[in-house]
Specification:
With 272 residues, the protein is of the alpha+beta class. Among the domains are: 54 residues; 108 residues, Domain of unknown function DUF1214, C-terminal domain (Jelly Rolls, Sandwich). Helices cover 21% and strands 20% of the residues. It has 3 helices and 14 strands. A hairpin with a 5-residue loop joins strand 4 and strand 5. Helix 1 packs antiparallel against helix 2. The chain is elongated.
Length: 272
């Protein structure tokens, strides 16, 4: 789409220029010139943003300054004179940034507790317009989850509430829908500080290397909660802390269904 926009901008400008040259009426010429200027102002930011996206995502994995689509870069130092990917960069704050592709589904931005640190997460559209800015000034410094949704997406957003050991959760993999990997997979439990959680069975992750018990219909249910789900279900239990936590799923040597997005991880659902 950005390339089409760029071509359309050039064609529109050329056509309007031809009309201006052919115009005999001064007022008409001025009107057409104004239209050409509007077309340029409308299209130029789209072109610049797309060039910036191509430059800043043209890497196979994240490094100090660039990352693939939908992955964060967390700068460890202030930009200097060698940083030319973005114009008018500031020298006051450390940058964390990502280019998002929302064509298929929304992305949830999860922000941890920030304490007394000032922060903001500026969200820009293709015209470099700031359409939202979660941060200290607008949403406060507490932990938060923010759904970033594309303009044509329809559906139901996942639960935006932080995961908490005050609740009980389940993950259910339907029969034949376990993660398609050629090595192994796991789901790891982390507390609010991204550390492992002390628990009575000494389990910090759960996956296909554990002696999991499948249901009668061939599905697999994992129990994510603070208290034991019962001795008969502890084989499938991933212990959680009493307060907030988060989960990481790791897929080692993923098959193509994971790479192309055909396989979907089941949602973390609150147990009734």
């Amino acid at each position: 789409m950005p390339l089409v926009s760029a071509v359309a901008l050039v064609l529109a400008s050329s056509a309007l220029q031809g009309r201006v040259l052919a115009a005999t009426d001064t007022a008409e010429a001025a009107s057409l010139a104004a239209e050409a200027a509007d077309a340029y102002l409308f299209g130029y930011p789209l072109v610049v943003m797309d060039v910036s996206r191509q430059v800043m995502t043209a890497v196979p994995k994240a490094d100090a300054h660039k990352a693939p689509i939908n992955q964060f870069v967390h700068a460890q130092a202030f930009p200097d004179y060698t940083f030319t990917d973005v114009v008018s960069a500031n020298a006051d704050t450390l940058y964390s940034f990502a280019w998002l592709d929302l064509a298929q589904e929304p992305i949830v931005l999860s922000v941890p507790e920030m304490g007394e640190r000032y922060y903001l997460m500026q969200l820009l559209g293709a015209w470099t317009d700031v359409f939202a800015s979660p941060g200290s000034r607008t949403t406060g410094n507490g932990r938060g989850d923010f759904a970033i949704v594309g303009p044509r997406w329809t559906g139901t957003l996942p639960a935006g509430q932080p995961l908490s050991g005050a609740n009980r959760y389940m993950l259910r993999f339907a029969n034949g829908q376990l993660p398609p990997v050629r090595a192994f997979w796991s789901i790891t439990m982390y507390n609010a500080k991204q550390g492992f959680v002390q628990n009575p069975i000494g389990r910090y992750a759960i996956g296909d290397r554990d002696p999991l018990v499948v249901d009668q219909d061939g599905s697999l249910t994992l129990y994510v909660q603070h208290e034991s789900p019962g001795k008969d279900k502890e084989s499938n239990w991933l212990p959680a802390p009493a307060d907030s936590f988060n989960l990481f799923m790791r897929l080692y040597w993923p098959e193509q269904a994971i790479v192309d997005g055909t396989w979907k991880m089941p949602p973390v659902e609150k147990a009734r």
